[in-house]
Amino acid sequence: MTNLLTQTPAWKELQQHYSQIKDVHLRDLFQQDPQRGTRLRVQAVGLYLDYSKNRITDETLHLLCELAHQRGLEERRAAMFRGDPINVTERRAVLHIALRTPKDTRIMVNGQDVVPQVQAVLDKMAKFAGQIRKKAWRGYTGKPIKNIINIGIGGSDLGPYMAYEALKFYSLRELCFRFVSNVDGTAFTEAVCDLAPEETLFIVSSKSFTTLETMTNAQTARAWLVEKLGSEQAVRQHFVAVSTNEKEVTRFGIDPANMFEFWDWVGGRYSMDSAIGLSLMIAIGEEHFRQMLSGFHEMDEHFRKAPLEQNLPVLLGLLAFWYNNFFGCQTSAVIPYDFYLHRFPAFLQQLTMESNGKRVTLAGEAVDYQTGPVYWGEPGTNGQHSFFQLLHQGTKLVPCDFIAFRKPLNPIGNHHDLLIANVIAQGEALAFGKTEEELKAEGVPDWLIPHRTFPGNRPSTMIFADQLTPRTLGKLVALYEHSVFTQGVLWGINSFDQWGVELGKALAQRIVTELSENEDLSHDSSTNALIRYYRDVHPS
Ligand code: G6Q
Questions:
Q1: CA-CA distance, 73 to 315, in Å (whole number)?
Q2: What is the dihedral of CA 75, 80, 81, 85, to 10 degrees?
Q3: I need a surface site. Which of 259, 277, 300, 506 has the fewest CB within 10 A?
C-alpha cells in the first residue's frame, strides 16, 4: 500500500473534487449553509475545534476520511498502540502513548510489559523533584539547589523548554530554570553567568549520551563546577542524567542512582512526557506533571476511539494534507494567542518537520507527491503586526491554526477580551476579506481600492480551550503528535526516523579537525575556501 497514494480510488476522486471546489469562496459556503459555523466543528476532550473556515465541503471531508481509510489509518494506529515496530528503519516500536497510559494497562514490547517500568521512573522522578522543591537535596557545600539547567538538544530540549514556558504559571517561582542546547559557547556562558555553582543542578538530558552539542556543554558545565567548587567530588551532587545509556552516564561521573531512564521506543521529539520532562516536573511538581500526562492520555484515547469525521487529530491531519497535496501550500502557520505558548511553534517545527520531512516511502521508494509542509509561527497578537500582511494580501496561501483559551491565567483589565477579539477577528478577516463593493460603500477612492481589497478565502482552524492548564497542554501536544502520525500514514512514510540530520553531523566531525590542522583540503572549492578563511584567524 505504501507507494500507491496517487493510485487509490479516493485520491482520484479527491482530484476531481478539488477541480470543482478550488475556486469556491468561503463567503459562498457560509452563505449557502447558515449552520456551517456550528456544523463544522467538533467539541471533544475539552477542546473546541472550529474547522468551518476551511476550503472544504462535506464531500471533501468524506473523501479525505475515505482516503485515510484506504491508506490504512485505522490499522496503522492500532499497530502503533499495540507496540508493533512501526519505525521500520530503526526496527523500533513507537510507544510515546505508553508514557501516559494508566498504571493498570499492559503494553508489551518484546514480551515485556513496559507500563511498570514507566511508572517506576515516574515515581523516581517525583521523589527527586520533591527533594529539590523541598530543599532536601543539598549541593556539595550543603546549600539547597536554586537553579536547574537542562542540557540537551533537539527532542531533549525543545519539549521540556516549551512545556516549562507554557506552564510557568504553575511553577515554583523560587527556582530558576534555564535550557542550554546550542554548542555555541554563548549559550552556556549566558546561562550560568549570574548563577552560583553551589546552588546549581545540571540535568544532562540525552537519549544517546553521545550527542556532540550536549556532551560538549555537559563537559564545559562539569569543568565550570569543578573549578568553582574546587573538587571532582562535587559532580555527584550537581549532575543528574536522563538517558538510555547507563554506561556513558557512569563514565561521565554521574551516579547511576541519579540517572532517569527512558527507552528506545520513545522518539526524541515524542519524549517530553518521559524522564526528559524532569526539569518540568521539578518546576511544576508531581501533581501537575501527572495532570499533564492524563491530558495526553485523554487525547490518545480520543484518537484511538473516535470516528474519523469526529476525531480531532485526524481532522487536523486531513486538513494539513488537503492544503499540502491539493492546494499546493508549502507552509502552514501555527499562531497561539497565549504568551505562555511562545515556544510552541518552535516545538511543533521539530515534531512536524523532523517527522514528515521525508522523500521516500516506508518501502524506500521515492514519493511522487508532496510530503510534510514547513511549519512556522509566532504568538498572536505580535504576528499581526509583522507577517499577517502576507497572510491577508500576499500571493501565497498559508493555512493557519489559531490556538486560544477562554479564561486567562493572568486577568488584568480587558487584556483578555482584546486578545480573544483579535484572534476571532483574524479568522473572520482571512476567510471573508473585504470586497471592492464594501470599500466603495465606505467612500474609499477608486485608485486606492485595489490596495485595500482583501480577497479572503484564506483558511484557518481555531482550537479553543478553556484555560491553559497542564492537562490542556498534554491534550494539545498529543493532538499534534497524532495529526503528524495521520499525515505520515497518508503519505506512507516513516514519521519516526530522522536520517536527514546525519550527513551534516558527519561532515562537521571531519571539518572540525581540518579547522585546527593545516592538512590539505579535499572538499569543493567553496568549502575549502571557507575553512581557509577561518584558519586565517586561528593558525595551527
Ligand atoms: C528527535 C531526534 C533528535 C534528538 C537529538 C538529541 O526526535 O532524535 O532531535 O532528540 O538529536 O539526541 P539525544 O537525546 O540522544 O542527545
A1: 12
A2: 120
A3: 506
Q: What is the pLDDT of residue 539?
A: 76
Whether the model pTM is above 0.85: yes
Q: Which residue puts its alpha carbon closest to atom 11 of ligand 1? A: 154
Rounded distance between C-alpha atoms, residue 478 and residue 351, angstroms: 11
Mutate to test the pocket of ligand 1, among 90, 92, 156 (most ligand atoms within 8 A of CB): 156
Is ligand 1 within 6 A of the CB of residue 354? yes
Question: Under a CB-based contact definition with an 8 Å cutoff, are residues 531 and 521 in contact?
Answer: yes
Q: Atom 16 (ligand 1): residue with closest C-alpha? A: 206
> Residue 245: what residue type?
N
The candidate with the shortest Cα–Cα distance to 20, out of 56, 69, 67, 68, is 56
Share of the chain above pLDDT 90, in %: 96
The pairing of beta strand 47-50 with beta strand 41-44: antiparallel
Phi then psi dihedrals of residue 65, to 5 deg: -65, -40
Least Cα distance to 507 among 530, 533, 539 occurs for 530
Continuous segment of H or E residues that includes residue 403: strand 400-405
Are the C-beta atoms of 226 and 235 separated by less than 8 Å?
yes
Q: Give buried/exposed letters for 140-157 (b at 16+ CB in 10 A, else e).
A: beeebbbbbbbbbbbbbb
**Rounded distance, CA 212 to CA 131, Å?**
31
Pairing status of strand 460-465 against strand 47-50: antiparallel
Contacts of 300 (CB under 8 A, 6+ apart): 81, 97, 100, 101, 478, 482
Does 473 score more than 80 pLDDT? yes
How far is residue 466's CA from residue 456's CA, in Å, rounded to a whole number?
29
- The Cα–Cα gap between 179 and 156 comes to 10
- Element housing 400 (H / E): strand 400-405
Q: Give yes or no for residue 1 having a pLDDT over 50.
A: no
Does ligand 1 lie within 6 Å of residue 160's CB atom? no
* 347 neighbors 280 (Cβ within 8 angstroms): no
505 annotated active-site: yes
- Under DSSP, the state recorded for 57 is -
* Count of alpha carbons within 13 angstroms of residue 135, beta-carbon side: 8
Residue nearest to ligand 1 atom 5, measured at CA: 154
Tens digit of each residue's pLDDT (9 = 90 or more) over 405-430? 999 999 999 999 999 999 999 999 99
What is the tens place of the pLDDT at every residue in 246-278?
A: 999 999 999 999 999 999 999 999 999 999 999
| 438: Cα separation from own chain's centroid | 41
Q: 206 in helix, strand or coil?
A: coil
- Average pLDDT value over all residues in the chain: 97
Strand partners, 183: none
